[in-house]
Amino acid sequence: MTHALSTREHLDSLPAVERVEELEGLVVDQFKRPLFLTGCDELDLSTSFFDLGLTSLRLMEIQRSLEAELELTLDTTALFNRPTIEELVLHLDALLGERA
Questions:
Q1: Which of 8, 14, 45, 51 allows an S-S link to 85, with CB 3.0 to 4.6 Å?
Q2: pLDDT tier, 5 (very low <50, low <70, confident <90, very high otherwise)
Q3: Total domains, the chain
Q4: Is residue 2 one of the residues assigned to a domain?
Q5: What is the pTM of this model?
């Protein structure tokens, strides 16, 4: 019987550079959904969440989704203190690195 790796286990098994790339893809996907963007649509990683058109409510939904996917708890201000995908990915990577 094989055990499928959770997203968290998969990320923990990757070298640091690859983990950041995987995290970026995961975070981008989470942000594209409420913006009604497809996989082909580009998303500027350095644009603030509010400039992308997201509301506080949508950010909280994204936060809960990321917490579930990554099996971690984010501070309630995490997305507000790191208001771009670029910054959020680095923060998440640091959190994952602490638990590794």
A1: 45
A2: confident
A3: 1
A4: no
A5: 0.90
